Amino acid sequence: CLMFSIEICRVTRDSIFLGRAGVDSIPYMYLAVAFVMIPLSLVYAKAVKRYGVASLSRIFLWAWSAALVIFWFTSQELFRESETFPYVLYCGVEVMCIFMPMAFWAFLNERFSSEQGHEIFPKIGVGGILGAIAGGIAPKLVTLYLNTESMFILAGLGLGLAGFISHKVNKSLPESCSLEKTPHTIETEKALKVPL
Predict the structure, then answer these.
(1) What are the C-alpha distances in Å from 5 to residues 19, 71, 137?
(2) pTM for the full predicted model
(3) Other CB atoms within 10 Å distance of the CB of residue 57
(4) What angle do CA 171, 96, 151 make, to 5 degrees?
């Protein structure tokens, strides 16, 4: 669900951005995303300390799901007329596409031991690849019948489903599955305790 939604968001964003802003603006967007990520990474580190990886992962999924659905229902005409919308959309989607997988894999690393990970992670990786392929194909099929912006509601529903699955997985696993104290885990905990 996650990679399916991310791929749909990227394809839809690129279609809107290239149509409105043009290809010449792409290099500037790479720089803008890099600058935006610096403060957001600091905020993310503090949020992980405060809320925990599992809660933050679900917050990300449900918040972005709601944002995409609300955008599709209420703001299409307004954003179509805005000159800044393509630039905000580009940065927003790219930030989502960076933080979502990062929070997702951090959640999995926290909830599964190394032994469990060797068995489960390859299956999740294959599922992610298949989801990305489906997410790349879906826009071509759906836009035969609906407009480009309609893809955001499909992506929003996918993220909402991913949040629901994440919630169920977190509740179904016993606490004994979480945080095996490896050297990597200990170093990460020490790094997060450093004041930012």
Answers:
(1) 21, 15, 12
(2) 0.72
(3) 29
(4) 95
Structure tokens at 162: 């991913």
Most confident listed range (20-24, 37-41, 167-171):
37-41
At 119, list the tokens: 């068995």
Q: In the 8-state DSSP scheme, what is residue 102?
A: H
Of the candidates 147, 136, 158, the residue with the CA atom closest to the CA atom of residue 65: 158
Residue 78: CB atoms within 10 A of its CB come to 10
Q: DSSP character for 174?
A: -
Q: Which two tokens stand for residue 182?
A: 């490896």
Q: Write out pLDDT tens, residues 60-117.
A: 788 888 888 777 776 566 566 677 878 888 888 888 888 888 878 877 777 777 777 7
Count of CB atoms situated within 10 Å of the CB of 145: 7
- CA gap 190, 42 in Å, rounded: 15
Phi, psi for residue 195 in degrees, rounded to 5? -60, 135
